């Protein structure tokens, strides 16, 4: 896109509507104009992409261990070892232990032992067994000698018991930036910073929610019936569309969730997207959203920050033309309205599809579909669909791709302490995705 074709003001795009003229005023550009399918102008141009995507750290080899070390570096590992030792000492000092307590055998751990412990947990996701003690079982059909050769079951159980990610004595809930994450906040934020500084995503990014399985007691536990886990901790994630790389994330903890500093009276979904996108604004990114987040309000804010957006839309959102809501159309038909750079369309497939886009109009694209006949012959069927719908299907799967990577090798097992099931997933699981995506 040549720079001279682009203007900072979204009002300059009013000429893409079939019902506007070159002399349209700024006020006219702020009104919705009906698009004529038979007399369409070009689609609104994208904002120029000025970021420099790619890996931003020095890499000496392509081994998974090196990629893991980029995110889980010496500082983070040393911090976890220090806090685990502190918690174990406080526990032993402040509690009356029974003579048979395994805590009598505690010895301070170091960074190398933390790495071994994490490696065994991740390996349990590859060699899946229903309960943890079976990894040290001597029963022939459960026997996996590697675990016992690396670490005894008693030592592993002690590390599991005392694993800790913060100093309990320094936690001030009243002044904490996110009290719901106080037990893991330092490590979680350090990893989030690593994810953002180690890699810059390509132009197309996706925002969606992810659910990490957790069935214990938790104030902010969510129930999402359409997700595979159904119960658990909800994450809002910004991922690269093509790879599923998790570039930024927010853990839903209720009202204490830190959101966009410039938020005024915007909706919560607008604030979530702007919080995740904050460091990518003004660089020409294009974010794909589902109907939970998309709204004219959000689109206008993103346009002022030189960021494009498209996604499905709920028909009752404020600011949508009334005719889009009321008009009945037949299968294969489309109607659309444009205001400046923003286009809202309604397309009838099996059911009505509402979409908002700052880079599309209501143009169709021909698509070939192959169908196998009963006699074995291949028949090519040509169909037409709106380009906005096809682009949405192509780019929306970033978060789903990350979830798919996590589902192959789950790390949580029965008999783990509950806080580990919650904390370990929030800390380690996203990092495993990053290692896969950057390979």
TrEMBL record:
Pfam families linked: DDE_Tnp_1_7
Domain (PiggyBac transposable element-derived protein) ranges: 63-421
Region (Disordered) residue spans: 1-28
Protein name: PiggyBac transposable element-derived protein like
